[in-house]
């Protein structure tokens, strides 16, 4: 809203109004505002939750310090959602399709997670929202995002062409002074360069290849018209899988004080940087990545996202004064997944979100192997001492295939080490942009 106000005030030539034309300024102020909102609003919300006795129900799983957390206020994800939405509404371009989709994601996942927490806390049902209902909500969001990417004329990418300056309304031709841009054909006009020949594309960014791009059409068994429909169907399916996996992966990671919030803050920096690079004609050309006009607004949104999580960590770090609950974990996972999809970097997520991936895989492996050995030998065998895998390091040695470490590691140390791993994975993900 402030952004649009300053856009309107342009005609009056007020000193300082040009600051809001810079993505970097808006990203910084959005991040700082989100952080301050988390800090100050968080204190009020935590007090409210304590008065209403909205506390976490803890099952005794034999983990060190676990029962001391009983009664700690939960549903603190409301703090994160408020701290993201207000700066986004103030400093993002609300006419931008990417902003609109991220706002929808925040509200959608927030409502889904809040419903789950509400059933657990107020209905006293430890199972919360039925897994099928939760899955339907996540898939529904994925379909909305996927269909928007397919049919919105505002979501486009630009093919690589060679262009150079020319005369008015003449398509530039490549020569010795040409400029490589990851963009559509540029046309010279009296007012400068304008863009045309926009395309819809199913190309994602992939690592370890020269062009850094592939196309989902390679998975289509058909060619021609049916092949075109099939590749878009595959792309939408991939978007659904990515968003659902990210949302659930973050949810599983939320099991220690500051683990999910800190790891997600680290992860959130990368889509923000990639969005800023992809939305810049010169930067995308330099890095040889696709140019996606309008994704600069994703960078501003993710700046608010990171600021909100850092502010929330003030209260959520060990020992936690509040838990985010599914209200927070489902929301931040959904935002990470959608932001990666919008900047066409979803295939980098297995590296960037390596912690979420391992947490999810540990649960799947544990359940599958336990059921298999129980069916075959009459007694189930655990691969890990406990899952998700962060609890494996927190629990004293018991019979399992993976017994190291034998002794429990303090919770704060586990969280710190996971943060370090997250930073390494984030750096590696960014480095992959230059690895061919």
Task: Give the structure's gist in a few sentences.
The chain has 436 residues and is mostly helical. It has helices at 2-8, 23-51, 77-91, 97-121, 131-151, 224-253, 259-278, 281-287, 296-316, 325-342, 349-352, 354-377, 389-394, 411-431, and strands at 160-163, 170-171, 179-182, 186-189, 192-195.
The structural class is: mainly alpha
Q: Largest sheet, order of strands side by side?
A: 2-4-5
The coarse silhouette is: globular
- Percent helix range: 55-70%
Mean pLDDT: 84
Main sheet characteristics: 3 strands, antiparallel
Order of helices and strands: HHHHHEEEEEHHHHHHHHH
Give the end-to-end Cα distance, rounded to a whole number of Å: 42 Å
- Beta-strand level of the residues, as a percent range? under 5%
Uncertain spans: 161-196
Let me know the number of strands: 5
Radius of gyration (CA) equals 24 Å
Counting H and I runs of at least 4 residues, what is the number of helices? 14
